[in-house]
């Protein structure tokens, strides 16, 4: 069985010492002894790169963790490494269940999640790399799809990801695991600015490999990567990291924004005698994070209309931490979820703890009437708010605001007339 560092081909790494010799063997140039020393030298260079890395690996390639820690000095590089192997473990790590476990999208989401998680463990300004890797390898059952790996790295420069497809039957499980582990280390080296061969060099000439880099060109990409928790987008498009926090906030997905949203904001301003802003969380409790293009499209709807807060706060508890002493403007359906234990894992204590923290942060809610699925008008009085939290909620009278259409209904009407 060939070892990956023996098939780097004619890509002679800078850290390969002159004393080492190579010879041709078929389509490959193999490195003679002491190639193990060259591999250790690469990993030592990674440890000394000045970067900090957080790894998340599933499906195959977890040997990369051992490769990095086998060489002394790993604590200078590695913050943590996770292997969310089980389907539920992966969904918990990502915050959503991916459509396909072994895909570029999943690897990218894992890299972003690893980077965002690690950002809370290191000092601000740390040169941080999040790596996500997922693979579909030889199994104890015949695999219908390709034997492949997807690796992504998220850092301050953006996202870089690669995909390799291995010929079925050419390697056993151990060999595929070894190959993917080495590919992960090589891709991490590139993200850390270390000169190293491409993972392509681990594959045979007839096997597929592709790589893509997406630059982090603006603040929205940095928010998506977890470098910031909040961005304020002014009506003229200017983005600010430390703008004054609004005291009235209308959260939503705004897909699309409509007159009901604008009218509700105006009513909330009148009731609270404070200017209102809108808020979009780029992360969601049970859905994938929003893509950069989606975020830009949605905030463009507010140009010259209203400020928008972009956050990574999917729950109202997290929103209250970002925006203390703020009134959140919501519909009766959302208010009902706030006081329903089933939205807290059927844990009533968790519900009380969350509402207590929101109250202690000075948070409150203005609640608008909504029409439910069977056409009934739902108002705050229809919701069983625990008495101890009654002061958190104030109803917006129906005569002040009622809007019977939702964004989903507007989208459906658009599809019916041929709009995208």
Structure, described:
By secondary structure, the chain is of the alpha/beta class. It folds into 2 domains: 4-216, Maf protein; 223-416, 3-Layer(aba) Sandwich (Rossmann fold). Helices cover 31% and strands 22% of the residues. It has helices spanning 35-47, 63-70, 87-94, 104-119, 173-191, 219-224, 259-272, 292-300, 316-322, 332-338, 348-360, 407-416, and strands at residues 22-25, 28-31, 52-58, 78-82, 128-136, 147-155, 158-166, 208-215, 230-233, 239-240, 248-251, 276-281, 308-311, 327-331, 364-368, 370-371, 377-378, 393-395. The strands form 4 sheets. It has an 8-stranded mixed sheet with strand order 10-9-13-12-11-14-15-18. Strands 4-3-5-6-7-8 form a 6-stranded mixed sheet. A hairpin with a 2-residue loop joins strand 6 (147-155) and strand 7 (158-166).
Give a nutshell description of this structure:
31% of the residues lie in helices and 22% in strands.
Fold topology:
Layout: E1 22-25, E2 28-31, H1 35-47, E3 52-58, H2 63-70, E4 78-82, H3 87-94, H4 104-119, E5 128-136, E6 147-155, E7 158-166, H5 173-191, E8 208-215, H6 219-224, E9 230-233, E10 239-240, E11 248-251, H7 259-272, E12 276-281, H8 292-300, E13 308-311, H9 316-322, E14 327-331, H10 332-338, H11 348-360, E15 364-368, E16 370-371, E17 377-378, E18 393-395, H12 407-416
Parallel strand pairs: 3-4, 3-5, 11-12, 11-14, 12-13, 14-15, 15-18
Antiparallel strand pairs: 1-2, 5-6, 6-7, 7-8, 9-10, 9-13, 16-17
Uncertain runs: 1-34, 416-420
Largest sheet: 8 strands, mixed
Tell me the overall shape: elongated
Spatial strand sequence of the major β-sheet? 10-9-13-12-11-14-15-18
CATH domain fold name of the largest domain: Maf protein
How far apart the termini lie comes to: 52 Å
Overall helicity: 25-40%
- Total beta strands: 18
Radius of gyration, whole Å:
26 Å
Q: Give me the strand/helix succession.
A: EEHEHEHHEEEHEHEEEHEHEHEHHEEEEH
**Can you name the CATH architecture of the largest domain?**
Alpha-Beta Complex
Provide the structure class.
alpha/beta
CATH superfamily of the largest domain: CinA-like
